[in-house]
Sequence to fold (166 residues):
Amino acid sequence: MLFGVLRFLHIIAGILWAGGSVTMYFFIAPTMRSIGDSGKQFAGHLMGKTRFTLFMTVVGLVNVLAGVVLYGIDAQWFQSGWMRTGTGIAFGLGAAAGILAFIFGGLFGSANSAMAALSAQIQGKPTEEQMSKMQAIMKRQAIMSRLNVVFIIITITLMESARMFG
Fold:
């Protein structure tokens, strides 16, 4: 029963987390960037006034925690030879990639918070120092969001194909 509930939570949370991250990276973020000030308003509303960030954090955390427990059960709490099979290795690598995706997603969220705080300080046209900080944060956002999505895709690929390596 516990295994079934954890598996359900892991799969549903993974779909929501990966779907949200991939949609944001490939479609929403580029659209926000391309429409200028309207995009900035939309981003400010999405990140600051909705529960999108909280939702993504919760589904990512549920996914990772359920996955760790599922792997622990399958690996007899990290004592089983199963961990050295092709399937066990693929699930283990997928888990590691998922944990990295969660970390990079958190770092992306942190960069979003830093951008929101900086934007709140700007009155009118940004100063050179503010522009420099904004560019550094935007660079960090781009790197973290890319790494988040790359590791999510690696995770999905390994989790989906793990049983083929058995």
Remarks:
- The two ends are 25 Å apart (CA to CA).
